[in-house]
Amino acid sequence: MDFFIQNAYAQGAQQGDSTSFIIMMVLMFAAFYFLLIRPQQKKQKQHNELVAGLQVGDEVLTAGGILGKITGVSEHYAVIAISDNTEIKIQKASVSMVVPKGTYDEA
Question: Tens place of pLDDT for every residue, the chain, 107 residues?
Fold first, then answer.
């Protein structure tokens, strides 16, 4: 009859092996690590390498969608020319990608 109706246990009574619970928790953590944590760490590492490699003359796209050419770089900031007489200063971390050469000139 246990097949159709589950047994009711008193509160606090032991109802199984705690080893299976620990194994399930380890498997859940491993799944979260390989599906969520590790890919995010790889993406963050790639972005840090991109920011560290910025140099004058690179054409970049910011997280806000601004396309421009880098005219100056410091430790935390970059100066970007967005038109003939307009330059803006942004945080280097806000650069989302370096675009191919000539993209800025075509825009």
Answer: 567 777 776 666 556 677 888 999 999 999 999 999 999 999 999 999 999 999 999 999 999 999 999 999 999 999 999 998 999 999 999 999 999 988 877 65
Whole-prediction pTM: 0.70
| Alpha-carbon gap, residue 38 to 55, rounded angstroms | 29
Within 10 Å of residue 69's Cβ, how many Cβ atoms? 19
Domain limits of the chain?
17-52, 55-106
Phi, psi of 5 (to 5 degrees): -125, 130
For 103, residues 6+ apart whose C-beta sits below 8 A from its C-beta are 59, 67
Q: Are strands 77-83 and 59-62 parallel, antiparallel or unpaired?
A: unpaired
CB atoms inside a 10 Å sphere around CB 39? 11
CATH number of 55-106: 2.30.30
